[in-house]
Amino acid sequence: MPYEKDSGFTDELPEAEPAEEQAPKPRSRLRWLGIGIAAAVMLLGIVSLITALSHRTGEDTKPVDLSALRSTIASEEEQLKDLKAELDKTEQALADKQKEYDKAKADAAAGMPDASGVQRSLDELKKAAQDAQDAYSEALKTYDASVDAVETAAPGYEEAKAMTETLAPFLGYAEAYEQFVSGASDTLPGVEAEDPETEVSAQSWYEAVVLPAAQQAGLQPPGLVEYFPAAVQELAAGPAAAVKAYEDALAASKEAEARLKEANTAQEDSAKAYADAKNAEKTSADWLADCEAELERLEKRIADLKDSIDQVTKSLESHRAELKKLEKQ
After folding, report:
1. What is the Cα–Cα distance from 140 to 259, expressed in whole angstroms?
2. Structure pTM?
3. 221, exposed or middle or buried, with CB in 10 Å at 0-12, 13-18, 19+?
4. CB distance 249 to 153 below 8 Å
5. In degrees, to the nearest 5, what angle opens at C-alpha 153 toward C-alphas 150 and 154?
6. Which residues contact 274 (CB under 8 A, 6 or more apart)?
7. CA–CA separation, 196 and 194 (whole Å)
8. Rounded CA separation 307/112 (Å)
9. Most distant CA pair in the chain, distance
10. Which residues have a Cβ under 8 Å from the Cβ of 250 and sit 6 or more positions away?
11. pLDDT single digits (tens) 214-272
């Protein structure tokens, strides 16, 4: 319907009459409650988003933090181990020193021998220690000489021993021949006559048995059996003497070594006895004071170590708890 000006309508709206104040209706309350819930949900979403972003940022830096933390824990564990080891060692040193102190104090309380008695005792022990030292020096010289003798005899020993072993059966042949010639035996080794009544010739036996064996062994025995015993004995004398010289030198060296050990033990015992006597004389007020100072130093060190152990332990426990917390994230 077209608009006409004179139709009774105007551009201005009629003024509304003031309405009477009314109490809010139930539907209006529900509307505001819905708006509040929506706002709370939106706020919760924002908080969740911020928390997620925070966790993600933590996960990005977590490997670096854990690595440094684990390194710190390992360092503290090693430090704690070293401190405990030093504490055990120091406590043992304290216990040893305390025993030494108690003994010295008891000796001092029991009283010392008079001056002349102590001095004579020390002089006697000092002389005994010096005599033992001299005896050890002589035993050492004897032992060194015996070692030189063994080294001198050693080079030809193996060769001489081998030659002695090679000549051993021929020395047996020589002895059998001499017994045969003297009538002490009517047989020769290695030859049996076909006819028991046939007399065995020493020369034929020598040529049949001894000469082939000697030549095979690289020896050059005489052609006649009557010269054989002297020749083989002379040939064996040199190697036998060399073997005996080495074995005697070796036995003498072992004996000298045993005497040297005995002399060394006697020297150590006498030196210890003299040192013990001097230490006994040293149980005086000054020595006890020195011992007390050492005890005090050890006790202070133990206290410091315990404090350090306590501090490192607390730090280690804190770092372990922190690591556990980070690993759960």
Report:
1. 9
2. 0.40
3. buried
4. yes
5. 80
6. 122, 125, 126, 128, 129
7. 6
8. 42
9. 194
10. 150
11. 888 888 888 899 898 988 888 888 888 888 888 889 899 999 999 999 999 999 988 88
Residues 6 or more apart whose CB falls under 8 angstroms from that of 193 comprise 199, 200
* Distance between CA atoms of residues 55 and 101, nearest Å: 64
Q: In sequence order, what are the residues at sequence separation of 6 or more whose Cβ sits closer than 8 angstroms to the Cβ of residue 213?
A: 169, 170
d(CA 64, CA 58): 10
- Which two three-digit tokens encode residue 304? 């410091």
Tokens of 4: 């006409």
Single-letter amino acid, residue 112? M
CB 208 within 8 A of CB 191: yes
Q: List, in order, residues 6 or more apart from 218 with CB less than 8 Å away.
A: 166
- First-residue to last-residue Cα distance in the chain: 74
Q: Per residue in 109-125, is it b (16+ CB within 10 Å) or e — as a string?
A: eeeeeeeeeeeebeeeb
d(CA 173, CA 213): 11
Q: How is residue 82 written in tokens?
A: 């070293």
| DSSP state string for 148-172 | HHHHHHSTTHHHHHHHHHHHHHHHH
Contact 232, 167 (CB under 8 A): yes
Residue range 24-33, pLDDT digits in tens? 455 555 565 5
